[in-house]
Amino acid sequence: MSDKFSGVEGFPRASLLSGPTPIERLERLSTQLGIDLSIKRDDLTGLGFGGNKVRQLEFYFGAALEKGADTVLITGAVQSNYARTAATAAAKLGLGAVIQMENRVHGMDEAYNTSGNVLLSRMLGAEFMHYPEGEDEAGADLALRRRAEELSSEGRTPYVIPLGLNNPPLGALGYMKAAEEILQQDDGFDCMVVASGSGLTHFGLLAGLRALGCKTPVHGICVRRNSAAQAQRLATVGAHLDALLDCDPITDASDILTWDGALEPGYGHIGPPARAAIMMMARQEGLFLDPVYTGKSFAGVPGLVKEGTIKPGERVLFIHTGGQPALFAYQSELEM
Questions:
Q1: What pLDDT does residue 217 have?
Q2: In whole angstroms, what is the distance from residue 324 CA to residue 116 CA?
Q3: SS3 163
Q4: Residue 330 DSSP code
Q5: Is 49 exposed, middle or buried (0-12, 13-18, 19+ CB in 10 A)?
Q6: Is the dihedral of CA 266, 270, 275, 277 positive or negative?
Q7: What is the per-residue pLDDT across 138-184, written as a single tens digit (0 to 9) for each?
Q8: C-beta of residue 328 within 8 angstroms of C-beta of residue 291
Q9: Fewest CB atoms within 10 Å of the CB: 14, 32, 264, 335?
Q10: Residue 72 near residue 161, CB atoms below 8 Å
């Protein structure tokens, strides 16, 4: 194991993941798309409806527990899978949870604000607060830290899970470990496809593969910002990850691959490619994707095939990052 990868083991980690998630071949979609398509079932990570955030949160909660925290604070969109999973982890570990809901997605109906992840987080006993902006990560983090200061003055020990780009990317370590898991299961894929939002899952997977000597391309499908802006964000995440691990650069610029063909009409809204991808996966394979992340990221598979980036017959691994509870908040947009 390389020094770049072994450094991951030095960070505290809470045990939240139920075990390695399976890789399954998608028989019908492989035939339909003319490729050899498999899916990494990270919707089955086990905790609170699963999803990719369980892997990230193992490291944030590891740090929180090491500091003796009794409350975690996190910020995200109203239907944030990250916030729901954090509240679930907090409940499992006996900690309090504060969720800050950002106004990122406009024009939604009442179900969006009350169903899906919101309902689950309320069932978990999370405290809610609101932030009026949707594109102000630094401001959202500052609001959380102010609430953390209030909790400290009350004798609590809070831990903030930050969103902003200029924070140590602890969550990326979870997907460096996922890369190791994938290679142990199957090291013969020609490329991998994953959602790219905050960048920690995408870049963590990429960095883990490269640190382990694997050159497989990783296509990050943009769910929040366009391809150029996302590539710039990923480069910054990479620089911060190198600093966190105190190592030479793990990747170079040519490793960062982004595609934004399913991004419109923007974060949290369903465009035609994402809707078609959700229905394709449901009707061909009996699996559900969410409207915010996995619907758009799976749309990247036929999109990249159509463009010729993914060649006929290639072995492709799609990372299913979970998020199905959000489906119930989008009923009006998904009804036929």
A1: 98
A2: 8
A3: coil
A4: G
A5: buried
A6: positive
A7: 999 999 999 999 999 999 999 999 999 999 999 999 999 999 999 99
A8: no
A9: 335
A10: yes
Residue 196 appears among annotated catalytic residues: no
With beta carbons less than 8 A apart as the criterion, state whether 295 and 196 touch.
Answer: no
Structure tokens of 204? 């963590």
**Mean per-residue pLDDT for 318-335?**
94
Q: Is-contact 117 80, C-beta < 8 A? A: yes
> DSSP alpha helices (H): ranges in 36-169?
53-66, 81-93, 110-114, 117-123, 137-153
pTM recorded for the entire structure:
0.97
Tell me what pLDDT residue 1 has: 60
Residues 230, 97, 174: CA angle, nearest 5 degrees: 45
Give me the phi and psi of 158, to 5 degrees please: -85, 155
> Length of the chain in residues, anyone?
336
Q: What is the pLDDT of residues 81-105, one digit of tens each?
A: 999 999 999 999 999 999 999 999 9
**CA pair distance 47, 34, nearest whole angstrom:** 34
CA distances from 200 to 28, 68, 208, 304 (A): 31, 25, 11, 22
Residue found by looking up tokens 């600093």 in the block: 243
* Placement of tokens 């004798």 in the chain: 155
Q: In the predicted model, what is the mean pLDDT of the chain?
A: 96
Q: Which two tokens stand for residue 125?
A: 């006993």
State residue 6's pLDDT score.
86
Measure the CA–CA gap between 285 and 298, rounded to whole angstroms. 13
Cα gap 221→26, rounded to integer Å: 20
CA distance 218 to 171: 18
User: Choosing from 2, 15, 30, 80, which is the catalytic residue?
Assistant: 80
